[in-house]
Structures are given as C-alpha cells and as structure tokens.
C-alpha cells in the first residue's frame, strides 16, 4: 500500500513539474537567454542597457496590450499601425496650422490634435466591428483593408511628405526622461499595462471579453452583449495606437504616413508568444508583458552580437511559429 502511494506521489510530482514547465516555459527561456548574453557581451548586464530595452519595446508594447484584448476576444486588428502614423501626422498638422501662428494656446492645439486622432481611431474601431459582426467578415481581411485606407488618407492629407511642425517641448513626451534616468516612454507603457490589466482581470468587461472570445454563442445566451464587447476592444486598441503614435512622433519630432508599417508582426508575435490564442478566450496581460520583454531581449542581443537585419526577421518569424505550435500543443493537451 505504501509503495502504491509512493508511486502515486512520484507520478503526481512529475506531472506537476511538467505543468509548471509548460506554464513558465517562456520565463525559463528568457532567464537562459539573459544568462547566455551575460557571458556573450559585457554591455548586456548594465542598467543602461535594460532601460534601453524598456524604451525600445514601449511603443509596440502599448499597442500589444490593446491587441491582447482584441485577440482574447477572438479577433485581430491590423489597422492599428496606420493609426500610429495618422496620430503623429494629425497632431503635427494641427500645430502647424494653429500652434505655430499663435492663434490658439499650445495646450489647446495639442488637445485638439489628440482628440482628433482619438476620434479617427474610434471611428476606425467601430467600422471594423461593424463589418466583422454585421457581414461575418474575417477581422484580418477587414482591418487589412482599413489599414490601407488609413495609410492612403494619411498620405493625402500630408501630401506624401513628413510633417515636422512640432514645438520643441513635444520631444520630452517620448524622448525625455523622468529623474534623468527612467525613459518617459517606458512609464507610459507601464501605465497602459496597469490600466488594461485592471480592465481584463478585475472588471466585468474583462470577463465578458474572455467569454466572448471563448464561445460567442454561449456568451450571448448568458446575457453578454458580444457585439458591444468586441466594439469596445476594437476601439480601445485604436486608442493605444494613438498613444503609441504620439510617443513615436515625439521621439523623431515628425509625423509620416510610412511610420509603423512593419510593427504588426512584432506586436502580434509578443501577444502570441505570451500565451494568447488566435482562437480567442485565452491570454493574459502578464503573458504579453513577458512576451514583449522576451522579444526585446532577443532583438537587443542580436544587435549586440552584430546579427544582420535580415537575419533578425528570420529569428522573429521563427519565434512566432514556435509560439503558435506550442499553444496548439498545449491546447490539445488541455482538451
């Protein structure tokens, strides 16, 4: 009897270890990567380098947190990259028309630019939701089309040229530092992370998002307004794109319709690598944060090791395939 109980305990312990490894595989890989880079480069384990990693992932990180909500809800939004570009262009054009001439106070011009960008993002999110829910169109196709529409509009209103009419103080938003050490961009990222974390894990809206993504019909029958839930997610991810666009334009002191065109893969990769599922209903904000840091460390490591830019694309794409395969296998095991 004791031998049977001992074997049972051993098997139970082994099973718990396997479950823990599956749950914390990404964190373990991140620790291994950090340990390897500590020996590979003397510049890696420095406070300045870690703050640089945080600064580099901040803009795409803000987008990724909003994208996590959308993917958990069972959809995807590829149009956010164009909203990033549109935000910088609109704020720059507003300042060039009213701010530089002194027609309005600077703070009012800035507020008008932000509200205009948020209005465009809100309308874009609602239009995306309408076509996805009304005509049952795949969100990937709808948002891909909307991305091209917005990039076209952005190019037309800027006449195809960068917009550089920004005040000098504007650069402090994304390129400045708090206490001369912490990048402001990283602070914005952490604030957005906390807000969306609270929404997703502490509010009814968060529970509705998980339910709508896991089984939309069951959620509807239980009294959840699935369409409204998807609309809120689609609008919120657009608002995160506006915030990211403000930070990006302030760092380079310019707005351009070509900005953020290659951000889609990195943003979605961080969400999927963090454990979210394209099928919806699965994912956490903590997982997305770990995925962001993991990709940031990988990118930083390849830069320190002088890995070519084209090879970096190969590595990022491979990581995304690996993450999707792992999520699929884990889903089968749970089923």
From TrEMBL:
User: Which of UniProt's keywords are assigned here?
Assistant: Cell membrane, Membrane, Transmembrane, Transmembrane helix
- First and last residue of the signal peptide: none
Q: Which residues cross the membrane?
A: 21-45, 57-73, 80-98, 104-127, 139-161, 181-200, 231-251, 263-282, 289-307
Write out the annotated subcellular location: Cell membrane
Kindly give the membrane topology term recorded for this protein. Answer: Multi-pass membrane protein
- Claim: Signal is one of the keywords in the record: no
What InterPro entries would the database entry show?
Answer: ABC_transp_permease
Q: What is this protein called?
A: ABC transporter permease
Q: Which organism is it from?
A: Enterocloster aldenensis
Give the organism's phylogenetic lineage.
Answer: Bacteria, Bacillati, Bacillota, Clostridia, Lachnospirales
């Amino acid at each position: 009897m004791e031998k049977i109980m001992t074997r049972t305990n051993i098997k139970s312990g082994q099973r718990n270890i396997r479950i823990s490894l599956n749950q914390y595989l990404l964190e373990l890989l991140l620790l291994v990567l950090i340990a390897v880079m500590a020996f590979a480069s003397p510049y890696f384990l420095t406070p300045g380098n870690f703050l640089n990693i945080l600064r580099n992932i901040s803009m795409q990180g803000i987008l990724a947190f909003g994208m996590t909500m959308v993917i958990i809800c069972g959809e995807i939004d590829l149009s956010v990259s164009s909203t990033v570009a549109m935000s910088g262009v609109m704020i720059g054009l507003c300042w060039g028309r009213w701010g530089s001439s002194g027609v309005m106070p600077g703070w009012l011009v800035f507020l008008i630019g932000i509200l205009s960008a948020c209005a465009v993002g809100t309308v874009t999110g609602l239009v995306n939701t309408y076509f996805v829910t009304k005509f049952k169109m795949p969100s990937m196709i709808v948002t891909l089309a909307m991305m091209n529409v917005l990039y076209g509009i952005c190019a037309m209103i800027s006449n195809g040229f960068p917009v550089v009419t920004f005040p000098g103080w504007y650069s402090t938003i994304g390129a400045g530092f708090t206490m001369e050490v912490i990048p402001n961009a990283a602070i914005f990222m952490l604030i957005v992370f906390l807000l969306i974390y609270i929404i997703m894990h502490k509010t009814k809206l968060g529970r509705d998002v998980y339910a709508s993504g896991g089984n939309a019909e069951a959620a509807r029958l239980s009294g959840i307004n699935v369409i409204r839930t998807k609309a809120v997610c689609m609008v919120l991810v657009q608002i995160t794109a506006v915030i990211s666009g403000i930070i990006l334009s302030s760092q380079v002191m310019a707005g351009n319709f070509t900005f953020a065109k290659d951000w889609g893969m990195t943003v979605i990769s961080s969400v999927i690598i963090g454990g979210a599922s394209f099928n919806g209903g699965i994912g956490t904000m903590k997982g997305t944060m770990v995925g962001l840091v993991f990709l940031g460390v990988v990118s930083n490591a390849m830069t320190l090791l002088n890995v070519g830019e084209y090879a970096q694309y190969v590595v990022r794409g491979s990581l995304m395939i690996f993450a999707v395969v792992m999520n699929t296998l884990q889903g089968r095991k749970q089923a």
